[in-house]
Specification:
By secondary structure, this protein is an alpha+beta fold. It is 23% helix and 33% strand. Among the domains are: 3-113, no CATH class; 288-486, no CATH class. A hairpin with a 2-residue loop joins β5 and β6. The chain crosses the membrane at residues 94-112.
Length: 486
């Protein structure tokens, strides 16, 4: 018997006696991922074991012992025939559950393959609604009739695909991945990256990882299992609860929109300072992208974590600046052109940073921007505030403007201040522009980091500045040139 076969048999015993841990389940799945040839023999062995157990005469003696054990002090009656029948049913239900657990953990191969294939549509919990260059690996037992997903395992070598679950969530998977689909509300992600968008009215959709359970509370969030063993969790909208498998914490850690955390194998969590996304939001990374993809390499601030609970995370949108893009991580405000001409042409398609609007009144705030190449670096600064010295010393006002379309107030703010003005996002350039920002430019001939500062000393109404960058060979145009072009 090979070492993998021996270990599989050891793990079966843990499953059948009810002591299997999440770590052992993950080990079981990993072995079967590497050795799918073991599944058929494993399933046959478990079924034979079950049938023999049911037919053993020892069961009758066990039930007889159970009768005696449950007989109470003198005057109590023994188990009735009805209760004995219920005990037999309970034992059978346990055995059936144990078999189902083994087969589901191992990829669900036999359980689903032995069902009539004409009913895959009824048994599907999700459907693949989009895919691009996906290379499926052997052992993808959850994939049926091309695009149906039933409980089982999905494994890819690369590409990306999107699943629409029957319960409502949409999950986008990218790159090499191994995941177990258990139901329309539960997925085990063993390796790779998945981003889920869940309807706000639906709560409880969960992505389990080897170290943490990410439990949705109506949101868009991303989960990535890193090669170094850490797990990254990013919340793009709404909120999630994180329940780790290691510590003794009773209450889960909650992450809200704009927060991100990296979780170690020991369950410790740390802030992720930034993530990058493509302009369509199809993929994201907490690492630096490959050369040539980005202009903005990194943004960092001097805000210390508050007792380890502050997980604010900047988002860099590569080539993403366009009409109606969200300006901030934490507020639903959008950048737009100030009139029907739209954004200044030299800004379209620029890398830009979604900053934190909550930082606009910080007195000691400092941000450092690092570039991957020589670039034009831009700061969008609120015209309601006098430009601070760090801005006038390092940047030049282009004479161009960009508009901010403010979105709705958070429900908690509106409840506390019913007198607040009503804001709604509109679509398109020049629509619903609530505030004007001047576009300031700095020519960066090298990649020396640039340090930005606070909004100013005064406390008047304001919104946090924005940041964008283009390669140096994309030349800025003056206000006069812009008027001629338009």
């Amino acid at each position: 018997m090979t070492a993998p076969e021996k270990r599989i048999h050891e793990l079966i015993d843990f499953v059948l006696d009810g002591s299997c841990t999440d770590k052992q389940r993950q080990e079981f799945a990993a072995i079967l991922d590497e050795h799918p040839e073991l599944i058929k023999g494993l399933a046959s062995e478990v079924f034979v074991h079950s049938l023999l157990l049911w037919q053993r005469e020892d069961i009758t003696r066990d039930l007889s012992s159970l009768d005696k054990a449950q007989t109470v002090e003198k005057g109590s009656s023994a188990l009735t025939a009805e209760s004995r029948s219920e005990s037999v049913d309970g034992l059978r239900r346990f055995t059936t559950w144990a078999i189902a657990a083994v087969l589901l953990i191992g990829g669900g191969f036999v359980f689903w393959q032995t069902r009539p294939q004409s009913n895959w549509q009824e048994r599907a919990v999700a459907e693949i609604v989009d895919s691009d260059s996906v290379s499926w690996k052997d052992g993808s037992t959850a994939l049926k009739q091309g695009d149906l997903v039933v409980p089982g395992r999905l494994r890819t070598e690369g590409g990306d695909f999107t699943m629409q679950f029957r319960s409502g969530p949409i999950v986008h998977v990218i790159g090499a991945v191994s995941m177990m689909v258990e139901s329309d509300m539960l997925v085990h992600l063993d390796s790779g990256q998945a981003t889920a968008r869940v309807p706000h009215e639906l709560k409880g959709f969960t992505i389990k990882t080897p170290v943490i359970d990410v439990i949705d509370q109506g949101t868009e969030f991303g989960v990535a299992i890193r090669e170094d063993g850490f797990t990254d969790v990013v919340v793009f909208d709404g909120k999630v609860d994180l329940a780790d498998h290691i510590s003794n914490k009773i209450d889960p850690t909650r992450l809200v929109q704009g927060q991100a955390a990296r979780v170690s194998r020991q369950g410790t969590m740390q802030r992720i300072m930034q993530v990058g996304r493509d302009q369509k939001g199809g993929w994201w990374t907490s690492d630096y992208p490959s050369s040539g993809v980005n202009v903005i390499q990194e943004v960092r601030d001097n805000i210390p974590p508050a007792d380890g609970l502050d997980y604010f995370c900047y988002q860099i949108s590569y080539h993403g600046l366009d009409e109606d893009v969200f300006a901030y991580v934490d507020d639903p405000h959008q950048w737009n052109g100030i009139d029907e001409r739209g954004l200044p042409s030299f800004l379209r398609g620029a890398d830009f940073v979604k900053t934190f609007n909550d930082y606009r009144y910080m007195e000691y705030f400092q941000m450092t921007v690092s570039l991957s190449q020589p670039a034009n670096l831009y700061v969008f600064f609120d015209d309601r505030v006098p430009p601070p010295k760090w801005l006038t010393d390092q940047f030049e006002d282009t004479g161009e403007n960009i508009g901010l379309d403010e979105g709705p107030w958070p429900a908690r703010d509106k409840a506390l201040r019913p007198d607040l003005p009503v804001y709604q996002n509109a679509v398109g350039a020049g629509n619903s522009i609530d505030n004007i920002f001047s576009v300031w430019q700095r020519r960066c001939d090298d990649t020396t980091p640039v340090v930005l500062g606070i909004m100013g000393e005064e406390r008047q109404a304001r919104a946090m500045y924005g940041i964008a960058a283009t390669p140096l060979d994309v030349t800025s145009v003056s206000a006069k040139d812009h008027s001629i072009l338009n």
